[in-house]
Structures are given as structure tokens and as C-alpha cells.
Design goal:
The structure is a homodimer. Chain A contains eight helices and nine strands. By secondary structure, chain A is an alpha/beta fold. In chain A, α1 crosses α7. The mean pLDDT of chain A is 93. The interface between A and B is medium-sized, with 34 and 34 residues.
């Protein structure tokens, strides 16, 4: 069948564990890579250009937007973040699945540019469990946690725009479900119809 | 999430190996069962009622059709074959995935009664390979093989009505892809949207 890679967009509320899932997935599956975002924020201690982010200037970022070079972009805490289209498309062409871990609004931007992407929304086993995980970090005040839970509820309301939900009950199960989704999507009829018409009809 | 089983309809041309895939699958996955068809044909040596088929009379079969008791039914070589709706729905309710191995026309009947089913079309690696497999059986004349290949081509033309294609390149890979499809379908958003709205919104 087709050897081109598939684009997976993974979203979900803060604290749900989507970052860990994506990072563990690419560690254990060499057919898949994480997309590296561009940002105008300064590199933190130990971060490397082309590994954690592509660090670019505000002018470069705006020129990129003007030329349509981002699959999605957003502002967060006064810094710009975006997914470089060219790097993603090249990886897909080379046959790798590309995983984008992004927010709901960014995901919807990606869908408008790349509707053949697969959109996965990660959920916790329950709202209570999400709250426990946020509290377990011991890094946020009650007020911040309350705001994150409110925001999570707004995000859940948008999750029907995604193709799959992935309940993160435990990491192993979540990875195995993500693997199944990737494998199944390769078999999805609309992705194979040209091949079948060419070879069998 | 939902604990109800999913209905999988598996079709594909004669000689593609769909029967072996389905039988092996249920042997190795106790969350899945094969549907047992009803037929008006007489049991062959060694066949058992309720194991290979439900053997019923023509009158019983016609009464069943009149009462809407079949998910699909067809005539083959002068005998009637049908999928008993009640048995399938009971297995689904009990949480088992149910696999129906049926022809394309029957599959389309099932879809009209049960659109939430998952429709899988098994293909060979190539038309040449299908011909080799049919010839390898050493049971059919050239003329019969030619007719089967013609019929296969007609079936391929209808395969876009299915959700997935499953290339039967080798049995192990085919079983692993079928397993992935089943797992991924459980995560499919429309199957979970009620649960999410209830629990998270």
C-alpha cells in the first residue's frame, strides 16, 4: 500500500499525560517521530536548537506566517510557537509517521491544512483523576488548578472534532492503543482506494 | 467506555483466506466470536447444529425472513443462508465482538440494519497471487478459476463501501492488523462521545 507516513495530532487537557505518551511512543517506534516546533522564546538551560525547538526571531516567525510556512501557530505567554510545514511534510514523504502534540486550537488549524491527518484526544479516566494528577505535581496553587480544570472542560467540549479518544488509564495501555490506531489507519479504506483501483479493478 | 461488543463484517474474494483469518482470530482472542449462520442445506458428515450452522427447514427460514429475524440472507446453490439477528445482538450485548464472514451483498444488507458495524474487506497481495492461491487448491478447473477471478474483480469494485482493507500477505500480519482495527474502533470518537459528554462536560 502507500508508503507515505501519517500525521497524528495529539491533544488533551493539561495534566493528562499526553507529552509522556508521545515521547515514549517515538522512543519505542522508529517508524514515528515527534514534530519539532519553532518558537520565539529563548532556549532554556540545556535546550538545543533543532532538538527541543527551532529558536527563531520574531521577524523570522512573522515572515514564516506570511509565507504560509506553518501548519499551525499560536501565542503563549507572549511567545510565538508554530509547527513548520516543510519539516513535517518531508518526514511524512520519507515514510515516517509524524506526531504533533498541540493544543485544541492549533489542532483545528492543522486540520484545515491537512484534513487527512489523524486527530487523537487524550482523556483521563475521570475528572477527579485529572485533578489528582494536577495536585500531585505539587507545583500549582489551588487557583491555578481550578483554572486548568475549567479549561479542560472547555477542551472536552471540542473533542468530538477529533477522530479518536485515548484514555490514559496507564501508560502501557495508552501506548498500545495509539499503536493500534496507527496500524488501523493504514488499513483505512479511503487511504487505500487508489491503490485498489489501480491494482485490482 | 462502552462495554458492548462491536460487530465486524469480513468479506473478500474467494481464495483470499478470509475464513482462515476469522477462525484463527477467534481461537486466539476470547473477546471475539464467530457468528453462526442458519441454513436450509442438510448437515454434511461431522457438522453439528449450533456449531457449524443452525440447520432449519425452508418454512422456518421463510418465517424468519417474514419476521425480520435475519441481519442478512442469501440463496447459494439452491440453499438459503442467513445471519440470525437475535443471536448476534445478544453476543454484542454480552460484550463480545462478533465476526460475520459473509459475501459483499450480505454485508451491504447488514450495514442497512446495523450501520455501526465495522466493515473489513480482505484483499490478496495481488491479483496474480489470488490466481496462484486458487490454482494451488488443485480442486477447480481453469474455467471455474477464470469465473472466480472475474467475480473477484466485481467485488473489488464494491470494496470502497467497506471501512478497512486488510491485505492478507501472511496470516500473522493479517491477524495483527485485524486486532489493531478492533482496538482502534473502540477508541473511535463517535463510539465514545456519549460517555465523554456524560463524564467530562
Amino acid at each position: 500500500m502507500k508508503n507515505k507516513g501519517l500525521l497524528f495530532v495529539v491533544s488533551g487537557p493539561s495534566g493528562v499525560g499526553k507529552g509522556t505518551i508521545c515521547q515514549e511512543y517515538v522512543k519505542t517506534h522508529d517508524d514515528s517521530v515527534l514534530s519539532i516546533s519553532a518558537t520565539t522564546r529563548a532556549p532554556r538551560e540545556g535546550e538545543k536548537h533543532g532538538v527541543n525547538y527551532y529558536y527563531i526571531t520574531n521577524e523570522e516567525f512573522e515572515a514564516g506566517i506570511a509565507k504560509g510556512e506553518f501548519l499551525e501557530n499560536a501565542v503563549f505567554c507572549g511567545n510565538r510557537y508554530g509547527t513548520p510545514k516543510k519539516a513535517v511534510l518531508e518526514m511524512l514523504e520519507s515514510g515516517k509517521n509524524v506526531i504533533l502534540e498541540i493544543e485544541v486550537q492549533g489542532a483545528m488549524q492543522v486540520r484545515s491544512h491537512y484534513p487527512e491527518g489523524v486527530f487523537v484526544f487524550v482523556i483521563p479516566p475521570s475528572l477527579k483523576e485529572l485533578e489528582n494528577r494536577l495536585r500531585g505535581r505539587n507545583t500549582e496553587t489551588d487557583d491555578v488548578i481550578k483554572k486548568r480544570l475549567e479549561r479542560a472542560k472547555q477542551e472536552f467540549a471540542l473533542c468530538e472534532k477529533y477522530n479518536y479518544i485515548l484514555m490514559n488509564d496507564n501508560l502501557g495501555d495508552a501506548l498500545s492503543k495509539l499503536e493500534a490506531i496507527m496500524k488501523a489507519e493504514r488499513c483505512y479504506m479511503p487511504r487505500n482506494i487508489e491503490f485498489i483501483k489501480k491494482e485490482f479493478c
